[in-house]
Structure formats: structure tokens, C-alpha cells
Amino acid sequence: MIDLSNIEKRFGDAVILKDISLGIPEGSVTALIGPSGGGKSTLLRCINLLEIPTAGSVRIGDEKIDFEPGMKIGWKSIQKIRRQTGMVFQNFQLFPHRTAIENVMEGLTTVLRWPREKAHNRATELLTKVGMAHKTEAWPSELSGGQQQRVAIARALAPSPKVLLCDEPTSALDPELSAEVIDVLGRLAAEGTTMVMATHDLRLASRIANHVVFLESGKVVESGRAEAIFGDPRQERTKSFISSINAAQTAHI
């Protein structure tokens, strides 16, 4: 489904990602975890080319792009990859001058050129799926953070992407509002939605991820089945990180 091969990302002389290779099967949920600055959000953004890798290759389905230092990638090639993904951002990024349903419809009508009635029906279906059918005409300023994120999830799902990418989907929310978003993502996972998420929220990762990748300093320290990583990690660094985060999140509650 998704193959990342020998991905490297540099900003000037700083190496952010170093020789990362991952395979993400269709229908799986992969959590990228690790300390701040470890590269998890950058790696996530390399999948849909919000960040262009310096070297390596990205394949989603039948579309593949190879990268080399200094090589310029054409916009059409980027769009072929990007249109197969949906993105959920940390801070929601809803249009403040659009209602909830208009936010979900926006990409369908402006990018995909769907008729408004078809887009409206699709948006209504998805807002119902994420528990927001009662807020279709609400403005983002009238919604809680959890509600805004659920609208953002509906928007990301609207064009039926092959993979849903989530960049810290609960980090801007308090624990109660996080639970709303975790419930929605859990239902999507149960339905077989392919997801990759960068997260510091180990409750989210342990609940819905099949596979976990622990990143630090731009490298994969350890990866494997979620139950193995959270229950019996092989690397001491993984073990200490998970213990410290679990303790901090328990104390926060």
C-alpha cells in the first residue's frame, strides 16, 4: 500500500531523517512515536509530500516518486501522491469563514469539481459518521476543540483517500475532548481505514494502532507490533521513553 524506501530529509546541513524504510499495509494503523524533534511529524509529512524528501522514494498504490538531492519534483507528480491521502492537522485548520458542512464540502467542489448537491450529501454522510450531524451549520468558533477536530477528520475523509494521515490529532485537546477524537479514530480503524499518525498520546496509539515505529534523532530505534512495543519493547531506550510518557500522562489526568 505505502512504501517508504531509504528516506532522508535535510534542512541545510541538518539531517532530520536518516535512511528510513517502512512498509504500511492496506487497512493497518501505524503510530509514529518518539520525543519532540525526533522526526515523526516530518516523516508523516514526507508521505504526502508536504515535506519533499531529500533522497529515497515514496510509493502509494501504483504511484511512486524517487528523490535525489537537488532534484525538482513536478507539481503533477506531487498531486498524484497527495490526492491519495487525507490529512488531519494538530490545530484543525478549518476555514473560519465556512460552516462545518462547508469546510467538508470545500475540497470536493473546488478541487474535485463535484456538483454542490453531491458534495453536500457526502459531507452530511461524513459529519454523521463522526458524530457531528447536529452541528452542520455551526461556525468553527462555535465548536469545541474536539468538535473542530471531528469536522477536520470528516473533511480529510471526504475525497475517499487511500490513507488518512494524522499529525498529533489530540495534542491540542484536553483529555475529555481527546476521548471524542480517539473514539472516532477507533471506529475508523475498526472499519479498515488505513492510517498513519504521528502522536505523543500513547493512549491513542495503544488503543488503535496495529504497528508502532519509535523514532529518535531522525532514526528508527525500534518498530513492531503495537502489543510488543508497548508490552515488551526490545530496546532500553524505547522502554524508558514509554515509561516516562505513561507516567506523565497518568499524572496529567
UniProtKB/TrEMBL annotation:
It comes from the Bacteria. Residues 2-242 form the ABC transporter domain. Its main location: membrane. This is YckI (ABC transporter YckI). SMART domains: AAA (SM00382). GO terms for molecular function: ABC-type amino acid transporter activity; ATP binding; ATP hydrolysis activity. It holds the Pfam family ABC_tran. It comes from Neorhizobium galegae bv. orientalis str. HAMBI 540.
